[in-house]
Amino acid sequence: MAYSKEQLVEMYKIMQMARLFDKKIATESKKGKLVGMFHFGTNQEAFEAGLMPCVGPDDYLKPYHRNHGCLAKCDLKMYVAGMLERSTGYNKGIGGDYHQQDIEDLHLLPIDGLIGEDWLHDTGVAMALKMQKKPGVVVCAQGDGGAQMGALYEAMNIASLYELPIVYIVVNNGVAMTTPTTKECKCSEISGRAAGFNVKGVSVWGQDPIAVREAIEAAMDSARRGEPALVEVMTYRTCGHYFGDPRDYVDEEYDNRMKEKYPDPIARFENILQEMGVCTGEELKGYAKEIKGRLNEAFEWAYQQPMITGAELAGADKVFSNTEGGKL
Amino acid sequence: MRKVTGAQAIEAAVFEEMKRDEKVCYMGEDVGKFGGAITKVSSLYENFPERVLDMPLTEKGFTGTAVGMAWMGMRPVVELMYPDFIPLAMSNLVHGAAKQYFLSNQKCPVPLVIRSAQGIGSQCGAHHSECVEAWLMNFPGLKIAVPTYPEESYGLLKYAIRNDDPVVILDCRTTVYTEQGEIPEAEEDAMIPFGQANIRREGTDVTIVAWHKLLRDSLEAAEDLAKQGISCEVIDPRTLIPFDIDTVMASVKKTGHLVIAHEANVRGGFGAEIAAQVTERDAGVLKAPIARVGMQNTFIPVGTVEWQIVPDKMDVVRAVKNILGKELLPEELGAVEVDVIAELKKARPEGDEA
Asked: How do the pLDDT tens digits run along chain B, 354 residues long?
């Protein structure tokens, strides 16, 4: 289909947000202003740019832990404050960088720290949507590592049996933590496994946001009809597992081959937008600058917010909604 | 009042809650037309077919699915055919369900009920006979109920379904068919709130806290001991989390002696937690060391020999007499003779030829 300039620019901005957010974390960490473990998704940003425009207000999204592009769903200041342990941010600051959640209002599902366990919880959300006759589709993502968990296969089986409105997304970025996908599984395309559950599986080249978007849109249409689907986004992560990872375990030959196969999606999209006469180079620089400005503002605001304290989190009433009946 | 078995009490409780609230659904293996393998609940599927979800053999799969459903405000009751299967779903139960209220900053309660019947009685061996309450008790965020008699199976299950927190409710394999009891007519508020122990027998010499098979055994032991002039107070805690320590403390202050009896293994069992709570509060009230009765840190083999592996009435008698410094009668040295074939027949649903 044809896309308007507005739509194309939206996708471009999502990619830049994903990358610039990662860069901002790196800058702040180097300044000593951030502590903790941060996982980046460098070179796989076209996935988020294709995904986020598909997710409507009735839908539920479970991003994975390299998804700063999914911030399009959040208030940036609230997210950064939440990430920085500030009690005025999302989740009052206890969610860190990727466990922030708000099911009821944002339709943002929690990412389980046990990678791949949440395929099932997301399937339950889809079951609830169906049983409660609510509109909307659940879109849940994991990496190729998370796709090795058995939970995905029990989940697809149940989704298929109960004809649930759910789309499983596997971001196959060529490496799980430090292990190349070739050492995780023998299949060249994980999407092929979906057929065993009567789930539609498709693999899409993940450096083109438009291709990703169309694959996810088609999968969501199918899910709305009660035919769950799996989309495998083929890409390559060019950064380490965490910020500061020296990547000295990477095989150079593999790295070069993958980089050639999966070129920088942002530079690629910039060329296309300019060649097609949609945007000038100046305009594109302007969008990036605008995002940097928003990021600086969000971090500055968040630094001024109060830190969460242990005392605010203590007590059985924080763990149980009903505390009657004595010692809990 | 209605006279029912534990199994019938469970069916009545879920039926009435499903009728009252369309958010309640029942899911598990073979729970549809077959009505579930252990406690028959056939009326559920007959009356609410769209809310009784027959699931494939994936304890992890359907428990994890139920967690997501509960996040969305549904009230799933998950039947595990045997609680031995809980480890398959442990990560979803503890990370997905138990932690969610805390991690969502109290925005997302998880009204999930996991139910199963535990312990020996099926002669099915090591993978179908475990008592699992201690596997779960170290996780904040889970409530654990242990009904032994039909009144409790009914009242606690109703409370569990209406409660907004994740609950694991464990019935007892050896009493769920054999014990009859009276439950209220299908009225709205016939619930037993959590955290309220039930003093099943009053006494003055020793306090016995017990549940499931060992509660039945303890009541029989108390009867025997009464004939010898030993007065036992027998307390059914009914729920372990929350635990009614006040009722137990009041009793121990009166008797000065405490025996804790459960079918689960002794080491790290819930009995250890009760012993710790009592001594932390007031060790001075104890006139003798606390005694724990439980399985001796081993496994249940297949077959009728299971009755010889778990503790019985005589173990309770010996524990009581030991802490009171009383001599044992010759017949108290061995184990209770069990008619294992009769027990097996009793422990099967009506009409089952096994």
From this structure: 999 999 999 999 999 999 999 999 999 999 999 988 877 899 999 999 999 999 999 999 999 999 999 999 999 999 999 999 999 999 999 999 999 999 999 999 999 999 999 999 988 999 999 999 999 999 999 999 999 999 999 999 999 999 999 999 999 999 998 899 999 998 756 899 999 999 999 999 999 999 999 999 999 999 999 999 999 999 999 999 999 999 999 999 999 999 999 999 999 999 999 999 999 999 999 999 999 999 999 999 999 999 999 999 999 999 999 999 999 999 999 899 888 888 877 777 666 655
To 10 degrees, the CA torsion angle through B215, B219, B225, B226? 150
Kindly list the residues from chain A whose CB atom is less than 8 angstroms away from the CB atom of residue B100: 110
Of A101, A158, A321, the CB nearest to B62: A158
Residues 77-116 of A with CB under 8 A from B: 91-92, 94-95, 99, 101-104, 109-110, 112-114
Is A123 at the interface with chain B, CB within 8 A? yes
B105 CB neighbours in chain A (<8 A) are 91-92, 94
By the 10 Å C-beta count (0-12 exposed, 13-18 middle, 19+ buried), A227 is classed as middle
Residue of B nearest to A88 (CA): B105
Q: In what order do the strands lie in the sheet with A138-143?
A: A60-62, A138-143, A166-172, A229-234, A200-205
C-alpha closest to that of B117 among B9, B191, B274, B269: B9
Touching check for B60 and chain A: CB below 8 Å? yes
> How far apart (Å, rounded) are the C-alpha atoms in residues B135 and B133?
5
* A327 contacts B242? CB cut-off 8 A: yes
Phi, psi at A147, each rounded to 5°: -80, -5
Does B56 touch chain A if contact means CB atoms closer than 8 Å? yes
Beta bridge partners of A307: A86
Short-list B98, B60, B100, CA closest to B80 = B60
The residues of B assigned a catalytic role are: 59, 128
Side-chain-side CA neighbours of residue A290 (13 Å):
12
**Scanning every residue of chain B, which has its alpha carbon at the shortest distance from the alpha carbon of A111?**
B96
Q: What is the arrangement of strands in the sheet containing B206-210, beginning at the earlier edge strand?
A: B198-201, B232-236, B206-210, B258-265, B291-295
Residue-wise DSSP of B271-302: HHHHHHHHHHHHGGG-SS--EEEEE-S--PPB
AA identity, residue B252 = V
- The answer to whether residues A89 and A31 touch, using CB atoms and an 8 Å cutoff, is no
B351 has a chain A CB within 8 A of its CB: no
**Helix and strand numbers, DSSP H then E, in chain A:** 11, 7
DSSP code per residue over A172-194: E-SEETTEEHHHH-S-S-GGGGG
What global pTM score does this model have? 0.96
With an 8 Å Cβ cutoff, are B68 and A122 in contact?
yes
Backbone dihedral angles phi then psi of residue A150, each to the nearest 5 degrees: -60, -25
| A272 phi/psi in degrees, rounded to 5 | -65, -45
The pair of three-digit structure tokens given for residue A80, joined into one six-digit string: 């950064």
Alpha carbon distance, N-terminus to C-terminus of chain B: 31
Distance CA A86, CA B303 (A): 58
Mutate to test the interface with A, among B71, B108, B243 (most CBs of A within 10 A): B71
Closest CA in chain A for residue B110 = A321
Mutate to test the interface with B, among A91, A120, A309 (most CBs of B within 10 A): A120
